[in-house]
Here is the input.
Amino acid sequence: MSLAELSSRAIIGWFYKKLNASDGMGWIQAISNYFTSDQDSEEYKWIGQSPVMREWVGSRQAKGFTTNGITIENKHFEATIDIPIKHLRRDKTGQIKVRINELANRTNSHWALLLSDLIKRGESNVCYDGAYFFDENHEEGKSGKQSNKITFDLNKAGVNGEVGTPDVPTEAALRQAILRGIQQIISFKDDQGEPLNENAQKFLVMVPTNLWFIAKACVAVPLSVGGATNPVKVLSDLDIAVASNPRLNWTDKIIIFRTDSDVKALIRQEEEAVQIKAKAENSEYEFDNDAHQYGVDTWRNAGYGYWQNSVLVTLTKVEKA
Here is the structure.
């Protein structure tokens, strides 16, 4: 390519074209709400559930707001690459464009990085109700104690024969664990003691890479190995997707997310959208260093939303006596 084709205007155009071609992994939108921000931080007040219908006796009985909430502070993130002028001059194989496309891809995956960090720390970071995000002791109002952190013993999968190990379960055993997690989500009650997820139909199963193949097999085809009916596929009222997350640092856990709720399990917050800036032609940086710099930056952050729309399932295998 000529230097004219590798101008800062052309390079910036490549970046935004690649950035807008894909906004990252599909699971990002499925499990998180996106909110814009116009200040240092935003406070999210979770106001409990709307009141249930009751027989009109006497006057109306209005339900007030709860005081629970979380604050998410915007943070400044950046990534910068340095391109020597000699590389611009000698680039005949499109290597500069490759680097710029990689920068766009890295930028698009930033939400996955932030959300994955929240997920990995969910057993030790608190959410809006004061409990850990993944916890056995969530309680609000009349809900009673509830847990979105459960274990599933493969030996109790209700299948004949081998069930595998927690890091390599059989398809039949993992299928039972997935259904057990969905059952847990459907069981949750709100602060008035009413069913919270009774209309849930769409779910996402997030797994580490070692469980991806088995999890996909659990939901992909009507018939399982050996010709047996796949109970997940015949449950026509459920829509179950699978997402592999290589950022997860465990091998024996899966997470079930409800994805058809208005309020998601996680929150994405953005004050300033991604921008790319250049120190390029005729700049002082070019004069001093015989190079150009391209940097992207954004103000954003992520936080915990509704724990009731997720369940962490740890696979175990209790040794039989």
Q: What stands out?
A: Residues 223-227 have pLDDT under 50 and may be disordered. The first strand starts at residue 32 and ends at 36. The radius of gyration is 24 Å.
